[in-house]
Design goal:
This protein has helices spanning 65-70, 162-167, 185-194, 206-209, 212-217; strands at residues 8-18, 21-27, 41-44, 47-50, 53-54, 58-63, 81-86, 105-115, 118-124, 138-141, 144-152, 155-160, 178-183. By secondary structure, it is mainly beta. The protein has a domain at 8-86: Elongation Factor Tu (Ef-tu), domain 3.
Amino acid sequence: MFTGIIQATGHIAALQKKHADMRVSLDIGQLALSVIELGDSIAVSGICLTVTEKTAQGFTADVSGETLSCTTAGDWTLGSRVNLEMALTPASRLGGHIVSGHVDGVGNIVKRWPDGRSERLRIKAPDNLAKYIAAKGAICIDGVSLTVNTVSGSEFEIMIVPHTLQQTTMADYVAGQGVNLEVDVVARYLERLLLGDKAALENANLAESISKELLIEYGFITPNQ
């Protein structure tokens, strides 16, 4: 479990393709190496990876074929910069929002432009994720907890303040670049819960399960509406 508050940036120190998956070694920059243990979970640009080996400058982790298929990890090259966050502890402050490190898909930066001292980004999400993205809701982009400013179809806009630009890899973003997206975990579970008993059926569809009775039961409308 993470918060989306980046603790350091690092870079890819080594890559080794192993059949359908990959082993990666990272230089963790200013992240405290002394507190990292084997088996720890660390979010690397929003991807939860497990420490399999400690190195002089960081750690090594394995990246599964599933992770390669739905994140930007397959695009990493030697020297690629990454955002880093260690997992929450019971004493941690929840400064961002609840982030699992399980990437839902890859979005693409449509446009970037200055807005005062900040930068505004427009990002296109995969169509299947659009329903989970709401104005003023939370979203995690490359491991960074952010607030959605506006939404139009599958595209949404976010504002990046100067501090975030300085402390993360977002200063490097350019139009056309892919980014890891994790939607709000509450939205994902809410959709599944609303399916009710139909969740056990193959290819269950929430849209087909919504009825007036369901909306009344959960308080979205009154019986007279």
